[in-house]
Each structure stands twice: as structure tokens, then as C-alpha cells.
Design goal:
Layout: E1 7-11, E2 15-17, E3 19-20, E4 32-37, H1 56-66, E5 71-76, E6 80-82, E7 87-89, E8 101-105, E9 112-114, E10 116-118, E11 123-126, E12 131-135, E13 146-147, E14 150-151, E15 156-159, E16 164-167, E17 170-173, E18 191-195, E19 200-209, E20 212-215, H2 219-223, E21 240-244, E22 262-266, E23 271-275, E24 287-290, E25 296-299, E26 306-312, E27 315-317, E28 331-334, E29 337-339, H3 350-353, H4 359-362, E30 369-370, E31 375-378, E32 380-386, E33 389-393, E34 398-400, E35 415-421, E36 424-428, E37 433-435, H5 440-443, E38 453-458, E39 461-463, E40 475-477, E41 481-486, E42 489-491, E43 498-501, H6 513-518, E44 535-540, E45 543-545, E46 557-560, E47 562-569, E48 572-574, E49 582-584, E50 589-594, E51 597-598, E52 605-607, E53 620-625, E54 628-629, E55 634-635, E56 644-647, E57 650-651, H7 659-667
Parallel strand pairs: 4-5, 5-8, 6-9, 7-25, 8-26, 9-27, 25-31, 26-32, 27-33, 31-34, 32-35, 33-36, 34-37, 35-38, 36-39, 37-40, 38-41, 39-42, 40-43, 41-44, 42-45, 43-46, 44-47, 45-48, 46-49, 47-50, 48-51, 49-52, 50-53, 51-54, 52-55, 53-56, 54-57
Antiparallel strand pairs: 1-2, 3-4, 10-24, 11-12, 12-23, 13-14, 13-24, 15-21, 16-17, 17-20, 18-19, 18-21, 19-20, 22-23, 28-29, 29-30
Length: about 675
């Protein structure tokens, strides 16, 4: 029978009534609840369409009162929901007893969950350089600022390796033309950024005395050993160095045409300085400063996960991860993974002797950390993100099943049935999506409940990502059992478009002979006799273009390590200049690469077979067949004797694609 709205047992300044709809099941006391929220609502209101509540926290409380008795829908009206702290969803916030909880936008609305504050009240500070200043809360720090929805840049100068002399604790400036750096008033706000063959490292400055720059520890130590380091990049000619974040650097780069907005924040004084474009009216600019390091945490426990929870039609914006500004810096290793812990056995001269790995560095191999995302999902099942917008985020946007150290909850991994569909990811400082962990519990968990399973990423637009952390792949999945990445459109990214897998074969059955013999990698690490959790990754029907804009290394589609059942199929890759299109890196095994259309002036297909060690089958059992490509270039050893076979692929140098290839091109990308 059709019933009216039942009363809720909750009280808040009087009895609260939750709007309900639907038919009651036989013997049921509750069918469906609808909770209405508006930025202009009142938390004492009954959460009805005409009298919505105001805060998301109040809506959560009402959900918990209703979700065991039926499905619950939370409808957000248009407007901005300012977060003072991350919004946390635990097991109690998901669907109970088989029911579902849905958070969605009202019809025609685009509600925004924002961790930022709008900055106003600017005063002219330096007319010649068009710098204005405004008051902000003292103690507030951030690494990002958005002006009219575009990322402003922290002021910088580019230097050459020959301009400095590296040392154990920092460097000396040896180019007299850079003497003005010594006069920077806030050297403790400055940092060195170094981009190499595949790394993007940040080391904060501790102090400057004369022309001697002393760096913060342990950031400097961790950034100056391992692979592709600050002091010993793999290819020095392709590496770059920048000094960033000094008020005195505004306008120094002579790159005014690229980004007119440069800014500097002084947290102690509570001052934000902003250079604006010529002819701008400061009063008309929308300036947003983030106040939070993360926006949303969704996590139960492996035993009691969050279940049956969805988010539809929302916008998530304005976060800033501060990790690189801390003494640990950002000792980047690859794709959002970094070293922050201190090694007790690091040689004092590692900055000179361990630029191509060493046994001591390998002792840290299983202790890398992951960049925390703005929206974090762990210990959760049957979670849906559909038709949302993730934009103006100062790190990775969406983290799924990452290690515990990348989650506010302190709980990691353990995701199943997460679906990310028809969303837009744009104007991000890091990746759009990072799924899976990199530590031991990710690849060889002691508890099967920790395994990340059954992930779907499809029909998403991904554009203008990794703006600050250029090492981040647009989409990265590591140790996940069963991933489908399909029908996405990915563009404007400095590194890989889609990267899957992890570990360089290190953690696969029997280990990697290259690391065993050349780096003595198993002196400190286990040589596993069982497979990792990585398998059945399908990358298909994606449209990938305008990626690889910064780094030579990596590929538009990229893999690491053994991936049984893996398929790369029906993708269209183009506009990548002379970069690698499909790259099966070290340890890649069990791939089928078929039916892709690849346009590049470089290598359309590459495999890392570990040089002279190719006969050791470090990368093996890979088949590439039935692909169309505009360049004949391939890399690595494609030899039947090591079960790497490339056959029946069609070279089309004039890009006059046959009908079958045109069908692939037409079918790749987002299904609107």
C-alpha cells in the first residue's frame, strides 16, 4: 500500500521527519528515504524537499537512521558545500541489510563539495609587476591556487646543473648570475624541483647562507639516491632543475604568455600575493585557496567494509596535499609513489655512489609511500562514482584501494566492485585515478580480504592532469585482480595515459634476475614463490592523445610486471609526437595486444627485455597481432625464442587507415 512519511527517531531541536517514498514490502517498517540538502537549508529542518537540511554531516546522521530499513537517497541542491574537515564515510554510512545509499545532485543542479575559500580584499602591492596582496588566515598553507578555475603557478626560475655544485646536504650556487637567490627573504619557503627521465622530485630548502643552500632532511637524502635522482639523473641532457616558490621570483621566468597568474603564500604573516594578467580587474577574478589536504574518505574495515554507496552528479574541488612542503619532500620513484622513510643503512656518499641503484637502496623497495588522493576509497565494496566532476584538485583526484599510508582512515586496500563511469577529471595537479597499492600487503596479502578486485573505469573524460606532479600517469592501476579500463578519452598529460601493473617483475614468481644479479635486490627482499594479486587487466577502446608531453620514458599505454589474462585491445593512440605508444616494461608477461590503431613518429610498440639479459625471459609470453601503426619502430626483443611475438601487424605510414582501423577509431573513446 502507499504510505506517507514515517517519523524518524532522531531528534535535533525537535522531532525530525525524513521524506520517504515507495511501497513498503510485506512486514517492512521502511521502504525508501529521501533526504534533501541545500546550502541554504537548516539542520533543524525535516530534510524534506521544501525544508532541506544544510550540512552534509547532518544528512549523514539521517542516513544512518534510515539505511537499515530501506534504500536512502540524499539529494543535493545546487550551490557550494564548504567543507571544514574531510567528509568521512564508514561502514555505517553505506547500505545496510542489502539496501543502497545514493548521494546525487538534484535535477539540473551541480552541487560542489569544496575544501577551499574564496579570497577577496586584494590591495595593490607592486604596480610595476602587477602584484596584489590579500589577507588570509594565519597558519594556512597550500601548494595550489586557482584563478577563474585555472591553476595559478608558484613563481620559479630554471637553472642548469652547471649552475650548482651538489653536496651531501644541498648545493652551492656557482653561477654568479644567480647571486640574487641568496637575498630571498623566505628561503624556508623555497624548494628545488628536478625532473628526470621519469621522476619529478621536490626538495624543500632549509636555509641559505651566502651561496650555500642547505636542504631539508630526509627529503634531500631520499631524493639523491636510487634511480633517476636529483644529483644523478639517467639522462642529464633531458633533465631540468627549477627553484620554486619565492616572492622575488615572480616574473623572473619571462614566461608571461604561458600563465599570467603567479602567487606566493606567507602562512606566518597570513598574506597571499598574486600577480595578475595585464588589463585584469582584480575585483572580477575568482580566486580560490584550498584549506584541506583531502575532501572525502570512504573506508570501513576489511571485515566490515562500506557497501552499496554511490555518488552521482557532484563536483569535488579544492584540496592541496602538503607532503612535498614537509621535511620529507617528494622523493618521487614513479607514478605517485615516493620514499619518505629513513634508511638506517644509507651510505653517507649515496648521493654520489647510488645514482643507479645499490643494495642499500633496495632495502627500501617495499617501503615506498603513495600520494594521498583527495577522494579516498578503501575497505569498500560496490561503490559507484557516476557523472561527477573532479576538478581543481591539488593531488591525485580519486584513490581506490591504495596502501594504508595514503588513506586518512589508516585502512588500505580491500576494495571490490568499484565503478567509475562517465565522470570528468580536469585541471588536476596529479593523476585522475590511482588504484591499488605498492607495498607487500598489496601484492602478497596475508589476508585475502585485502585483495583489490573487480574495478571498472569506463567512459570518463580525463584532460589536463598531473599539472604539478608530472610523474603521475593519468590513470594508474597497480595490484588489482580484475580491472577493466575502457572507452575513456585521455588527453593533455605529461606522462603515461594509462599505466597498469607495478613492481618491475620484482615481486613475481621467482623474482627478477636483473635486480637479483645487478642490484642484489633479494639481500633485503623476499623472492616470492607465489603470484601477485595482479591479473586480468583489460585496457580497451580508449582514445589516448596529447599525452607524454614532458617525459621520454613510459608509454601512452604502459605496463609493469606479470599480468595473467591481460589484454590491450581496440585503443586509438595519436598526437604523441615521437614518444612510445604501447610499452611493456620490465617483467611484463602474458599480454595480448591486438586491434589497436597507433599513430606516432616513435616506437609504436616497445618491450623492456633487460638488454643483454633478454634470454632470461624477464619479459615473456607477450603477443602483439592485428594492430595498425603509422611507424615501423619497435623496441626490445620481439623473438619467438623468448615467447615475445609481434606478427600480422599492418604498417600504414600515410595513415590511410583501412575500414577495420577506421571502425576502431570511430569506436574508441567515451560513449556519449
Amino acid at each position: 500500500m502507499n504510505v506517507g512519511a514515517p517519523r524518524s527517531p532522531l531528534h535535533a531541536a525537535g522531532r525530525v521527519v525524513i521524506a520517504t517514498a515507495g511501497l513498503l514490502a510485506s512486514g517492512s517498517a521502511w521502504a525508501q528515504a529521501t533526504i534533501f540538502v541545500s546550502p541554504t537549508g537548516d539542520d533543524r529542518a525535516p530534510a524534506s524537499a521544501t525544508r532541506p537540511v544544510r550540512s552534509l554531516e547532518r544528512a549523514q546522521a539521517l542516513v544512518r537512521a534510515a539505511n537499515a530499513r530501506g534504500d536512502v537517497t540524499v539529494i543535493l541542491a545546487d550551490g557550494t558545500y564548504r567543507l571544514d574537515r574531510p567528509l568521512r564515510f564508514g561502514a555505517a554510512d553505506g547500505g545496510q541489510a542489502g539496501h543502497r545509499v545514493a548521494w546525487r545532485a538534484a535535477a539540473g543542479a551541480r552541487p560542489m563539495l569544496s575544501g577551499g575559500m574564496t579570497v577577496a580584499g586584494f590591495r595593490l602591492h607592486d604596480a610595476e609587476r602587477r602584484i596584489w596582496v590579500a589577507d588570509v588566515p594565519r597558519g594556512l598553507d597550500a601548494r595550489q591556487l586557482w584563478v577563474d578555475d585555472q591553476l595559478a603557478e608558484r613563481p620559479w626560475i630554471e637553472i642548469k646543473a652547471a649552475d650548482v655544485a651538489f653536496a651531501r646536504n644541498g648545493f652551492d650556487i656557482v653561477n654568479p648570475a644567480l647571486g640574487y637567490v641568496a637575498a630571498v627573504k623566505r628561503p624556508d619557503r623555497m624548494e628545488l624541483e628536478a625532473t628526470g627521465f621519469f621522476t619529478d622530485r621536490f626538495s624543500p630548502v632549509r636555509s641559505i647562507a651566502g651561496l650555500t643552500v642547505t636542504m631539508q632532511q630526509p627529503a634531500w637524502d631520499n631524493n639523491s639516491w636510487g634511480f633517476d635522482t636529483v644529483t644523478q639523473p639517467i639522462f642529464p641532457a633531458d633533465s631540468r632543475l627549477f627553484l620554486r616558490n619565492a616572492l622575488e621570483f615572480i616574473g623572473k621566468a619571462n614566461d608571461w604568455h604561458a600563465n599570467p597568474y603567479q602567487w606566493f603564500l606567507d602562512p606566518e604573516a597570513g598574506k597571499l600575493y598574486l600577480r595578475i594578467a595585464q588589463d585584469d580587474d582584480i575585483r572580477r577574478l575568482n580566486v580560490v585557496l584550498p584549506r584541506m589536504e583531502a575532501l572525502v574518505s570512504i573506508a570501513g574495515t576489511p571485515a566490515v567494509p562500506v557497501e552499496r554507496l554511490s555518488f552521482t552528479g557532484l563536483r569535488f574541488s579544492h584540496s592541496s596535499w602538503l607532503g612535498p612542503s614537509r621535511p620529507t619532500g617528494y622523493a618521487n620513484q614513479q607514478s605517485g609513489a615516493f620514499l619518505s622513510e629513513v634508511s638506517p643503512i644509507r651510505p653517507a656518499a649515496a648521493w654520489q655512489t647510488c645514482g643507479w641503484g645499490c643494495v642499500e637502496f633496495e632495502s627500501m623497495r617495499q617501503r615506498w609511500s603513495q600520494m594521498p588522493a583527495a577522494i579516498q576509497v578503501a575497505a569498500a565494496r560496490d561503490i559507484l562514482f557516476d557523472r561527477n566532476v573532479f576538478t581543481q584538485i591539488g593531488q591525485i583526484a580519486l584513490g581506490i584501494g591504495n596502501d594504508a599510508n595514503a588513506n586518512l582512515s589508516g585502512v588500505g586496500l580491500a576494495t571490490a566492485g568499484v565503478r567509475v563511469t562517465h565522470n570528468r577529471f580536469a585541471v588536476l595537479s596529479g593523476s585522475a585515478i590511482m588504484a591499488g597499492g605498492v607495498r607487500v600487503e598489496a601484492h602478497h596479502p596475508g589476508n585475502p580480504a585485502l585483495i583489490n578486485r573487480d574495478l571498472v573505469i569506463e567512459d570518463n573524460d580525463v584532460v589536463t592532469v598531473s599539472q604539478d606532479y608530472k610523474d603521475n600517469a593519468a590513470i594508474l592501476t597497480t595490484y588489482v585482480s580484475g580491472t577493466r579500463i575502457a572507452h575513456n578519452d585521455i588527453s593533455d598529460a605529461p606522462y603515461d595515459g594509462i599505466a597498469v601493473g607495478w613492481g618491475w617483475g620484482y615481486n613475481d614468481v621467482g623474482g627478477n634476475p636483473n635486480y637479483a644479479e645487478n642490484q642484489k635486490g633479494y639481500v633485503h627482499n623476499i623472492r616470492y614463490a607465489t603470484p601477485t594479486t595482479l591479473r586480468d587487466t583489460v585496457v580497451e577502446y580508449n582514445r589516448i592523445h596529447g599525452v607524454k608531453t614532458w617525459f621520454m620514458d613510459g608509454g601512452a599505454i604502459y605496463n609493469l610486471s606479470a599480468n595473467p589474462g591481460a589484454v590491450i585491445r581496440g585503443n586509438h593512440i595519436f598526437d604523441i609526437d615521437g614518444k612510445i605508444a604501447i610499452y611493456l616494461d620490465e617483467g611484463s608477461k602474458h599480454f595480448r595486444v591486438t586491434g589497436n590503431v597507433v599513430e606516432t613518429r616513435g616506437k609504436w610498440l616497445n618491450i623492456n627485455t633487460a638488454g643483454k639479459m633478454y634470454k632470461r625471459r624477464i619479459s615473456t609470453d607477450n603477443l602483439a597481432t592485428g594492430n595498425w601503426h603509422s611507424s615501423s619502430g619497435t623496441g626490445g626483443r620481439w623473438l619467438a625464442e623468448i615467447d615475445n611475438v609481434a606478427r600480422d601487424n599492418v604498417l600504414v605510414p600515410d595513415r590511410a587507415w583501412p575500414a577495420a582501423a577506421q571502425a576502431v577509431i570511430a569506436g574508441a573513446g567515451v560513449r556519449r
